[in-house]
Amino acid sequence: MFRCDYFYSVPSQIAQQVEINTIASSFGALAARISVMHRYVLGELRKPELLGHLPENDALAGLCGGMIAAWDAYGCPKAVILFVVEDVTYNICDQRFHEYEIRRQRPDIHVIRRNLTQISQQGCLTSDKRLIIDGDEIAVVYFRAGYEPGQYHSEAEWEARLTVERSKAIKSPSIHYHLAGTKKVQQEIARPGVLNKFLSDSEAKLVSQLFTGLYTLDMSPEGDQAVQMAMENPERFVLKPQREGGGNNVYGQEIRTVLEKIKDSQEREAYILMDRIRPPIQQNYLIRAHEPVKLVEVVSELGIFGTILGTAKDIQFSKFAGHMLRTKLSSVNEGGVAAGLGALDSVFLFD
Ligand code: ADP
Ligand code: MG
């Protein structure tokens, strides 16, 4: 399961990719609910003729359908789906609905939730690499955690991850896809010619239009050039460490400060540099608890969900699984919904 995020870029007049999330891509459940809510609101406003502008959004059903297909592919009726969760799940109101949806679609499938510490205590591998947790065989592992060093408190959690990876359970994401979602790999994939290894020439051309400039900061002449470019015009770029979960990127003048400290050491290789995308600014209302409603300037970021099931050799399916829209104040760099800076929104299509 993955989510690709896009901004519409004003100068290039095309949607440009912010990044692809292959681990813990959230908001499938809430995005689907928001669509229903905005449809209801249009009804309340006595504007049913506008309903056709709101595309259907069944992200939750699509994502859970992917997990169910993986469970079927594993082929063991007694096995369960494991959600690898944080110690405290702040996104519980999104996450939990995946369990309910799996139960709704398939009452015969059971979901269990464990954090990495619990997996280290309760998990083991059989000699034929089946993953057993608390007596349950695991068919599918869905990582909602495990993308942050802080989620591995000690060697025990790393061991737990290794046990899961060595098992024959189907993982979402596989370790390969987890790595493919890192900023570094995304930057390497955007290099000229790399997409052509995986796609036909015409497909590669179309996909590469989605990429904005991505630059290595390796200790090389190419990396030196990128450092210089960022130091001269920091407002044009975003400096990204190999992190997930929001709130880690560096913007504007702070890029200079950070690069000044690390530009002569290998530490800079932990980052990549990216062109800053400038989305169109619109006026809208962000509705938040305990805050007065007022008209503000906002930008919107579109997320497209998908599911892929396959092996190293072939892809069984690759499907579109719905969308989500986040709208945030145009003045903030990152649109963290949980951080209170952004809001979930609906797409309104027009010619
Ligand atoms: P994470 O994986 O931590 O979520 P992202 O690369 O998705 O990191 O960045 C987080 C947010 O920062 C994005 O959702 C977007 O709002 C903003 N952002 C990231 N890259 C860019 C960019 N190149 N131009 C403009 N905004 C960006
Ligand atoms: Mg991400």
TrEMBL record:
Q: How does it assemble?
A: Homodimer.
Keyword tags: ATP-binding, Glutathione biosynthesis, Ligase, Magnesium, Metal-binding, Nucleotide-binding
Q: Which positions in this protein are listed as binding substrate?
A: 3, 95, 326
Q: Name one GO molecular function term.
A: ATP binding
Question: Where in this chain does the record put each Glutathione synthase substrate-binding domain?
Answer: 79-180
Q: Which family does it belong to?
A: Belongs to the eukaryotic GSH synthase family.
Please name the top-level EC class of this enzyme.
ligase
Q: Hey, which pathway is this one from?
A: Sulfur metabolism; glutathione biosynthesis; glutathione from L-cysteine and L-glutamate: step 2/2
> What's the Enzyme Commission number for this chain?
6.3.2.3
Give me the Gene Ontology terms describing cellular component. cytosol
Annotated ATP binding sites: 19, 183, 240-249, 251, 274-277, 301, 328, 334
Q: What does this protein do?
A: Catalyzes the production of glutathione from gamma-glutamylcysteine and glycine in an ATP-dependent manner. Glutathione (gamma-glutamylcysteinylglycine, GSH) is the most abundant intracellular thiol in living aerobic cells and is required for numerous processes including the protection of cells against oxidative damage, amino acid transport, the detoxification of foreign compounds, the maintenance of protein sulfhydryl groups in a reduced state and acts as a cofactor for a number of enzymes. Participates in ophthalmate biosynthesis in hepatocytes.
Which InterPro entries does the entry mention? Glutathione_synthase, Glutathione_synthase_C_euk, GSH-S_sub-bd_sf, GSH_synth_subst-bd, PreATP-grasp_dom_sf
Catalytic activity annotated for this protein?
gamma-L-glutamyl-(2S)-2-aminobutanoate + glycine + ATP = ophthalmate + ADP + phosphate + H(+); gamma-L-glutamyl-L-cysteine + glycine + ATP = glutathione + ADP + phosphate + H(+)
How are cofactors bound according to the entry's free-text note?
A: Binds 1 Mg(2+) ion per subunit.
Database matches in Pfam families:
GSH_synth_ATP, GSH_synthase
Keyword NADP attributed: no
Name of the protein described by the UniProt record: Glutathione synthetase
Cofactor(s) the protein requires to work: Mg(2+)
Q: Provide the binding site for Mg(2+).
A: 19, 21, 244
